[in-house]
Specification:
heterodimer, A: alpha+beta, Glutaredoxin, five-stranded mixed sheet, 4 helices, 6 strands, B: Rossmann fold
């Protein structure tokens, strides 16, 4: 990727990344899993959860993107992950270990059943 | 379940949302739009006015108006000026800056470039402590990608504006969060403060005009330009605009990173967002501002949190650590804990801080050991005031705050330690005794067998006795006794 030379080029790139062909934010047909991957999450075992998620989702034929983000702010419930199913609002799960990750894949992602451990969103984000 | 949405995320807008190691994710969230806007639509003077109009004040603790700081840095002329980001987060229990840098490094880079344009600088430096390896790694990746995309380097957006950023590492000294000490440390000198004036805006890094802002302040800047100063200054209280990130820690259910509008009450923070005190215990106090701050108590629960109210309450905003204490915390021990930290971190350059804090600590030590007198309490207050008035830099000028503010709010606990030789929270071990109640003791010997220092004597089926001069107050006997025969006095 080359340099961005003008505000117009920046704007164009922003639009493409938001919902164009290069959409990076949240592709509409894919399951997106974000792992809170900052010092706090890593110390609580986020690496293990992230690796497990990537491997297992592929094994179980789920078309998903697993990516790392910074801290979501729920230190008391680390490791935390956010799961976005196509067409649905994102849901944050706390206290995720391998067992919980397995439940989330089997029950929430594949069968759309709710799993315990959902953290209610308690903030407004600006857009 | 009712959800209380009294948090607004401005600084943390991208934390936990984007992948911090991919600049495209930041760009997709309108990243670098503010830089484009400033470079193409505003003169430096107009941009500085926007920051002034937003009302934002320094988030590192002091609360100096950011726009004014930029204006002063702009008005000083030199062949080279510097923009410095202070990421030397040193308060115990604070992790706001680390989270921002780990979760959204580009927002800081973008804001530094904007600041460079405003004050007329082409060089940015981020002073970050070496204890933050992940934040450093993500910053390095972010700087590399920003250069690749032309958001840093020469001729940004093909305009006649160059700006680049380098990292400088700190060794984790608390005093280096003070801007003059920070600058010395970056120059390779000892991290010691000097008297202001001259302020860094006149003579800072390598003697050149330097603008130092905190991570959180920078992270707010792109939003101010994207949304406008008029949008930003509607959030918050009359004299403190915008939001503040707090690291909520201690005896609270939902330990975490929160961002709330200025002017929110302590009650909302602790009970609505924090989920109340752990194990249903009673709230006692909150320490804000770390070792430089003071404690807020029940009577402050409904005080709106902003820079001025916290200072009026004998504390300060500080960088945003909030440590919650419950009925099991001894306020004298808390004051001692913070002072121990300051004694350790004092750079030693000026004597009030180097010697005064040490003496202050010794008096507290004496009180918690049960050897204090009422005269000691008077001395604490006098000495504390002298240290505040005569120390060279912010570290010493604020170090007695935890002692003075706990004395203001919890004097009865100090008096109890001195007169009754009692610590109501059971924290000061020298002031408590484990006693065997002769009526309940059946002589099972469980306590004696579990005592690690053999302080308990007694025949089988006879009442046992604890030798107080040997007892180390570990509480093993108390836990092992099945007959409730051991009590704490």
């Amino acid at each position: 990727m080359g340099k961005i030379n003008s505000p117009a080029e920046l704007k164009k790139m922003q639009e493409e990344l938001k919902d164009g062909n290069n959409c990076i934010v949240r592709p509409k047909d894919k399951v997106v899993i974000k792992v809170a991957y900052a010092t706090c999450g890593i110390a609580s075992g986020a690496t293990e959860v992230m690796n497990y998620m990537s491997v297992e989702l592929e094994k179980r034929n789920v078309d998903a993107i697993v990516k790392k983000t910074g801290c979501m702010g729920y230190c008391y419930a680390e490791p935390t992950i956010e799961v976005s199913l196509p067409g649905k609002d994102p849901v944050v799960f706390g206290y995720v270990d391998i067992k919980k990750a397995d439940q989330i894949i089997e029950r929430y992602i594949r069968n759309n059943e709710l799993v315990e451990g959902v953290i209610p969103v308690n903030y407004h984000n600006i857009d | 379940m009712e959800i209380n949405k009294n948090q607004i995320r401005i600084v943390l807008r991208n934390c936990g949302v984007i992948d911090p190691e991919d600049i495209r994710e930041y760009i997709a969230r309108d990243g670098y739009s503010a830089l484009a806007k400033v470079l193409f639509e505003m003169t430096p003077e107009r941009a500085i006015q926007e920051v002034i109009d937003s009302g934002i004040r320094g988030r590192g603790g002091g609360g100096f108006p950011t726009g004014l700081k930029w204006k002063i840095a702009r008005s000083n002329h030199a062949d080279q000026k510097y923009v410095v980001c202070n990421a030397d987060e040193g308060d115990p229990g604070a992790f706001m800056d680390r989270s921002v840098l780990e979760g959204d490094p580009h927002s800081v880079l973008e804001a530094m470039a904007i600041c460079g344009y405003c004050i007329g600088s082409t060089k940015g430096l981020i002073y970050i402590r070496a204890e933050y390896p992940l934040a450093i790694e993500r910053l390095k990746i972010a700087i590399g990608q920003a250069r690749e995309y032309g958001m840093l380097g020469n001729k940004i957006f093909n305009k006649d504006f160059d700006f680049d950023i380098e990292l400088r590492y700190g060794a984790g000294a608390f005093v280096c969060g003070e801007e003059t000490a920070l600058i010395h440390s970056m120059e390779g000198k000892r991290g010691e403060p000097t008297v202001k004036p001259p302020f860094p805006a006149e003579s800072g890094y390598l003697g050149k005009p330097t603008n130092v802002n905190n991570v959180e302040t920078f992270a707010s800047i792109p939003v101010i330009f994207n949304k406008g100063a008029g949008w930003f200054n509607k959030i918050g209280s009359e004299k403190s605009k915008g939001t503040k990130v707090f690291a909520l820690a201690g005896k609270i259910n939902n330990v975490g990173l929160i961002e709330v509008p200025m002017g929110i009450t302590l009650r909302e923070v602790i009970y609505d967002i924090g989920g109340g005190i752990r194990d249903g215990k009673e709230f006692k106090a909150v320490q804000t501002g770390g070792p430089s701050g003071g404690c807020l108590t029940k009577k402050h629960l409904d005080t709106p949190i902003d820079y001025d109210n916290l200072i009026a309450a004998g504390s300060m905003m500080g960088s945003g650590g909030m440590i919650v204490m419950d009925e099991d915390d001894c306020m004298v021990a808390i004051a001692k804990f913070y002072l121990e930290f300051t004694v350790e971190e004092s750079c030693g350059k000026c004597s009030p801080c180097r010697i005064g804090n040490k003496r202050l600590y010794e008096i507290l030590e004496k009180i918690t050991k049960g050897a204090g007198t009422m005269e000691d309490i008077d001395n604490l207050r006098n000495l504390g005031k002298v240290i505040k008035d005569t120390s060279l830099c912010g570290l010493g000028q604020t170090s007695p705050n935890p002692v003075l503010s706990t004395m203001d709010s919890f004097m009865e606990e100090y008096v109890e330690h001195v007169i009754d030789k009692k610590c109501r929270a059971g924290v000061c071990k020298s002031l408590m005794q484990y006693i065997i109640d002769a009526e309940n003791c059946v002589g099972c010997t469980a306590c004696a067998r579990n005592c690690p220092v053999n302080a308990i004597t007694g025949e089988r089926k006879q009442v046992h006795l604890i030798n107080q001069s040997i007892c180390i107050k570990c509480g093993a006997c108390y836990e092992k006794c099945k007959f409730n025969a051991i009590s704490i006095k």
